[in-house]
Amino acid sequence: MLLPAKGRKVLDELVLLEVVRQYGAEKGIIATAVQIQAELDRILRELAPDKTRREQTALFKYMLEKRNLSQAEFDVIIERQYLLGRLVDPNVTITDKLYADEYERQYGRQVIVRQLVTASFRSILEVRQKIDGDADFARLVEQYSQDQPTLARGGMLGPFSRADEHIPEPVRQAAFKLNTPGWRTEPFRFYDDGNKEWWCLLQLEKNFPADAVTLAEVRGELTRIIRRRVLNQRMSELQKKLKQQATVTILERIFKI
Hints:
10 helices, Chitinase A, domain 3, globular
């Protein structure tokens, strides 16, 4: 499987599957062909619930092509995820705060902002001075921003909600103080996951008001979303733990990269 695919990347996937298999075997849990097929059937149903099996399969194959995945690679992922799902505690206690956060994430107000991010405080001050001189903010983003993912989109970030954990909390707090498109924040500081310091300016581009639906009306849907989110987090943490504990020896020289 390794040579015609992506070499080391696929090797890492196979290593993860093996450590999960070994841990599952210790707990008396294995994945049979029937169970793996049932898991694939579930994925197809969730992928296109209102389509025929032929349409679901066609869409699934298209998805694999777009992600540059072979069926064999996807089978590795399915088996690993199935085993992890069996190995974590399935009981999830959902607090009022979890409901409130998920409701905000799914149905609350969302915004799109244009962000300018730089590691230099001096640079952010230069930008602030040029804004006072009526410089175009989008042009300043092109000239100064160091955030590569958003820079490729002209600095655009979003849409995201106040509870979106993928966005740094200081950025969310600053963004949701802006109410009118065109309004900008003052420069503020935040730290990324590696504790690196960044300076940021935001301009509100679009505002999406909250949906007119109450938490009680969507509580069942939120329960399913929260439960899946919590279980996925537990599965990810278990996988990370097993990988850290594993001793892996790579004998094939071309994969020692």
